[in-house]
């Protein structure tokens, strides 16, 4: 049985191989017959089971052959028949299984053939679609669902170089400008995330026009990119334009319907073709059709005529017109344009804007007038850097021509003109300086600067950026302010240094009673500590420190009250005699800021000197009074004998007394001249003494200038003749007269002439002139004498000051003293101009004002 089982397996394997070899049914029967024959011999040999296992059931058509085969088997004995039956059963099963396997194989082969045919058809169709798809340059990008890896096919050379990696197509920024690249990124993201399709027209960085279409197909996101050219591009552009035009038309219609302003359109014949609801409401129509049928107009006939004329001449019309809507008259900005063969118009309510504009104009004019009154120069430049406004101070500051400024020059032109006129600060790099200045147009904060001009002026410049664009410049001439500040700083430093160098002690206490300022002299004078004073001690604290030198409570209370009081602020002099024997002269002086200044000066030495001087002055005054009294007394005592001598001399010279010998007459003449001179000297001394005593009184009256000069000249005629001196008189024609003491005026002129003749050499000229000024009569006496040295000019008017200076002049030296005294009594002045070797000029001014005489007399 073991052998039988092995052979049956071998027979089954052979049968299956036979079936796989594709043999026909008749071949199978022949083979089975051969197998049975083999099985007979095998059965005889005990191996029939293995042979029968290889047999297959016969087909009905070949049953006869199977019977013949079975009849051969009848020759076996029963035992062999039992084995044969078992083999036949196995053979039947194997045949059935082989037949089923063969049928399955046949069906599989048929299905495989049909599948290969279908695959061929699909491959052909795929090749045909691929050829059709890539017949033109294009790129396909697909993303399977749930996969971030993109599959790219097609001609990438249309966007990238041929040697580039296909994945670089996904970097849209490498071949698209920034804005289209961003648009493409957003569209692809929407397609992959939500399946939103898109269609875009793109322009590459090289100027090529591409169409990008994105769709979600079969669970994949697919993007197709191809170049638009020719008819397709024109069609795409036309579609886009049509869609854009339709969208724009719909948008404009929606906008017009929602707009609150009346909007209308008219056909070529002038009929209303479109009107928005605002137009319908404005014309009080029930609908657009009603407005068209009733031919309702928004504007009156005159305004419509003007609009038609404007549209005919300029193809557009703009005007601000009054329109009555709902019984109310309002201002509208009406704008109309020619569109195709028709006209379109809109009326925008500008009532509020018109009112605001008028108010703004009035406000601007008021601001302009206000700014013109400012001392600061103001210039406003607009966003285009052109001059929009300037005030008169700005024009005067830079000395601009109005024509130039009214032409609205730009900022650079203004600066260039100022630079050409050397009115801007000198700059090593003018362009850089100007660029920095113009940064104000982009700034957000105000900037300040100071310009130091070549002409010495200093300008404070404030640049303020305007919210609406542009810059406002403010120019202030701070030359005087800076100069005052510089002077003030210098003055403060000088005052500080002066205060520190003063021998006088100074301390300033504030309104709070604390020391604010002090100098070293104050510290030394009261033996204080500088460090302690810098701590701003209170006046009471300072008082406690100073008690060791001066402890008078009354004086310190007076100082405290002066420092801390609010009322009765007045200067308070102080004189302190301290314990150490020193004497201080002090002053409490309130200051304007509420502070109080204390000053102390050590006058100990001055006090001692003052006492000595006072005693000396009293002695000198007593001696001077004694001198005046002596002179006055002696003069009176001399006048009596002189009068007697003069009287007897005149009596002796009278012929009635008898003849005199020539010698007697000569001696008598000497006596007469000497007594006359002595009498004149005595009278002069008496006059001077009277003037010093304040007892001289002028007999005022009209003084004839010509007559006074004539009387004075008569008194020196004999001396002029003796010394052969010529007198030159010059009197202005309009000299007239003035108010004065004629006797004293003649005396003044006589003394001046006598003094000039006395100092003039023989055969010379002495001059006297008189002229009138606005307030005085001026007498001038000149000589050609030796002149007066500089060290003598201040002494020529002193008593008994007489020097001949090499001339023939002799005298007591009282003439010029009397001249000055009499002129000053009249309220006038005397001055002397002299050059050594060239003569002397004496000028006397007699005032014509009556008040001057009264003041001089007083």
Q: What can you tell me about this protein's structure?
A:
This protein has 858 residues and is of the alpha+beta class. The chain is 50% helix and 21% strand. It has 27 helices and 27 strands. A 5-stranded antiparallel beta sheet has the order 2-1-5-4-3, with helices on one face. It has a 5-stranded antiparallel beta sheet with strand order 7-6-10-9-8, with helices on both faces. α25 runs antiparallel to α26. The longest helix has 56 residues. Pfam families: HATPase_c (PF02518), HisKA (PF00512), PAS_7 (PF12860). This is histidine kinase. Its EC number is 2.7.13.3.
Strand order of the largest sheet: 2-1-5-4-3
Cα distance spanning the termini: 189 Å
Mean pLDDT: 77
Structural class: alpha+beta
Beta-strand segment tally: 27
> Could you give a short account of the major beta sheet?
5 strands, antiparallel
**Helix-residue proportion:** 40-55%
From the spread of the alpha carbons, the general shape counts as elongated
Number of helices: 27
Estimated share of beta-strand residues: 15-25%
Poorly predicted ranges: 1-26, 35-67, 69-77, 809-813
CA radius of gyration: 71 Å
Short description:
The chain is α+β, with helices and mostly antiparallel strands. Helix content is 50%, strand content 21%.
Q: Any key phrases for this structure?
A:
alpha+beta, 5-stranded antiparallel beta sheet, 27 helices, disordered N terminus, HisK_dim/P_dom, EC 2.7.13.3, transferase, kinase activity, phosphoprotein
Topology:
Elements: H1 2-20, H2 25-44, H3 48-52, H4 63-72, H5 78-133, E1 138-144, E2 151-154, H6 178-194, E3 198-203, E4 209-217, E5 220-227, H7 230-258, E6 263-266, E7 272-275, H8 277-282, H9 288-294, H10 301-314, E8 316-325, E9 328-339, E10 342-349, H11 351-372, E11 377-381, E12 387-390, H12 392-398, H13 402-406, H14 411-420, H15 430-437, E13 447-452, E14 458-465, E15 471-477, H16 479-501, E16 505-509, E17 515-518, H17 520-526, H18 530-534, H19 539-546, H20 553-564, E18 572-577, E19 583-590, E20 596-602, H21 604-653, H22 662-692, E21 701-704, H23 705-714, H24 717-723, E22 726-731, E23 737-740, H25 742-759, E24 765-772, E25 776-783, H26 815-825, E26 829-835, E27 839-847, H27 850-857
Parallel strand pairs: 22-24
Antiparallel strand pairs: 1-2, 1-5, 3-4, 4-5, 6-7, 6-10, 8-9, 9-10, 11-12, 11-15, 13-14, 14-15, 16-17, 16-20, 18-19, 19-20, 21-23, 24-25, 25-27, 26-27
């Amino acid at each position: 049985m073991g052998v039988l089982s092995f052979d049956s397996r071998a027979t089954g394997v052979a049968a299956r191989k036979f079936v796989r070899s594709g043999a026909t049914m008749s071949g199978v029967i022949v083979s089975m017959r051969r197998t049975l024959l083999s099985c007979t011999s095998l059965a005889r040999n005990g191996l029939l089971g293995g042979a029968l296992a290889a047999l297959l059931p016969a087909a009905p058509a070949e049953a006869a052959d199977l019977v013949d085969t079975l009849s051969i088997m009848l020759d076996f004995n029963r035992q062999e028949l039992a084995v044969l039956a078992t083999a036949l059963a196995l053979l039947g099963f194997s045949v059935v299984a082989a037949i089923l396997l063969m049928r399955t194989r046949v069906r599989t082969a048929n299905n495989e053939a049909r599948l290969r045919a279908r695959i061929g058809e699909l491959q052909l169709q795929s090749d045909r679609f691929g050829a059709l798809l890539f017949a033109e340059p294009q790129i396909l990008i697909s993303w399977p669902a749930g996969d971030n890896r993109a599959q790219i096919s097609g001609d990438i050379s249309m966007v990238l170089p041929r040697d580039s990696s296909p994945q670089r197509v996904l970097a849209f920024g490498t071949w698209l400008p920034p804005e289209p690249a961003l648009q493409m990124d957003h569209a692809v993201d929407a397609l992959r995330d939500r399946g939103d399709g898109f269609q875009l027209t793109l322009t590459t960085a090289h100027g090529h026009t591409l169409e990008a279409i994105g769709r979600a197909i079969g669970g994949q996101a697919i993007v197709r990119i191809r170049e638009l050219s020719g008819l397709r591009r024109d069609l795409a552009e036309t579609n886009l334009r049509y869609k854009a035009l339709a969208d724009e038309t719909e948008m404009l219609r929606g906008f017009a319907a929602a707009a609150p302003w009346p909007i209308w359109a008219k056909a070529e014949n002038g009929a209303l073709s479109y009107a928005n609801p605002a137009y319908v409401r404005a014309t009080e129509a029930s609908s657009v059709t009603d407005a068209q049928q009733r031919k309702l107009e928004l504007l009156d006939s005159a305004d419509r005529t003007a609009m038609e004329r404007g549209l005919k001449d300029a193809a557009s019309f703009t005007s601000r017109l009054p329109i009555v809507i709902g019984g109310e008259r309002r201002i509208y900005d009406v704008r109309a344009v020619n569109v195709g063969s028709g006209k379109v118009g809109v009326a925008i309510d500008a009532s509020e804007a018109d009112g605001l504009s008028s108010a703004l104009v009035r406000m601007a004019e008021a601001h302009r007038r206000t700014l013109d009154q400012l001392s600061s120069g103001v210039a406003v430049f607009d966003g285009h850097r052109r001059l929009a406004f300037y005030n008169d101070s700005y024009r005067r500051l830079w000395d601009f021509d109005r024509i130039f400024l009214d032409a609205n020059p730009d900022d650079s032109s203004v600066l260039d003109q100022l630079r050409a006129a050397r009115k801007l600060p000198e700059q090593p790099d003018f362009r850089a300086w100007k660029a920095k200045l113009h940064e104000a147009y982009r700034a957000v904060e105000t900037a300040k600067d100071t310009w130091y001009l070549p002409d010495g002026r200093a300008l404070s410049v404030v640049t303020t950026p305007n919210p609406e664009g542009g810059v406002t410049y403010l120019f202030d001439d701070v030359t005087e302010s800076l100069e005052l500040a510089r002077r003030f700083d210098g003055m403060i430093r000088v005052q500080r240094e002066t205060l520190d160098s003063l021998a006088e002690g100074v301390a300033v206490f504030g309104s709070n009673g604390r020391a604010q300022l002090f100098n070293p002299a104050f510290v030394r004078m009261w033996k204080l500590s500088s460090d302690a004073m810098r701590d701003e001690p209170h006046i009471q604290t300072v008082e406690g420190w100073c008690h060791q030198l001066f402890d008078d409570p009354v004086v310190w209370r007076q100082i405290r009250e002066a420092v801390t009081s609010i009322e009765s602020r007045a200067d308070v002099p102080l004189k302190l005699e301290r314990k150490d024997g020193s004497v201080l002269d002090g002053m409490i002086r309130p200051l304007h800021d509420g502070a109080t200044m204390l000053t102390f000066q050590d006058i100990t030495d001055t006090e001692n000197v003052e006492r000595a001087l006072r005693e000396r002055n009293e002695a000198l005054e007593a001696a001077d009074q004694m001198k005046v009294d002596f002179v006055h007394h002696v003069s009176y005592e001399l006048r009596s004998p002189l009068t007697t001598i003069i009287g007897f001399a005149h009596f002796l010279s009278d012929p009635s007394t008898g003849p005199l010998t020539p010698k007697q007459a000569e001696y008598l003449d000497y006596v007469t001249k000497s007594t006359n001179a002595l009498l004149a000297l005595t009278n002069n001394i008496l006059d001077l003494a009277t003037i010093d005593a304040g007892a001289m009184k002028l007999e005022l009256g009209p003084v004839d200038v010509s007559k006074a000069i004539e009387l004075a000249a008569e008194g020196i005629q004999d001396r002029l003749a003796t010394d052969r001196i010529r007198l030159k008189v010059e009197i202005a024609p309009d000299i007239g007269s003035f108010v004065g003491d004629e006797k004293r005026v003649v005396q003044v002129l006589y003394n001046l002439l006598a003094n000039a003749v006395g100092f003039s050499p023989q055969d010379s000229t002495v001059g006297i002139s008189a002229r009138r000024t606005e307030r005085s009569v001026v007498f001038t006496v000149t000589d050609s004498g030796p002149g007066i040295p500089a060290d003598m000019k201040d002494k020529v008017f002193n008593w008994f000051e007489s020097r001949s200076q090499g001339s023939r002049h002799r005298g007591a030296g009282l003439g010029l003293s009397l001249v000055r005294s009499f002129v000053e009594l009249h309220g006038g002045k005397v001055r002397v101009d002299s050059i050594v070797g060239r003569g002397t000029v004496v000028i006397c001014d007699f005032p014509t004002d009556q008040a001057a005489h009264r003041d001089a007399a007083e």
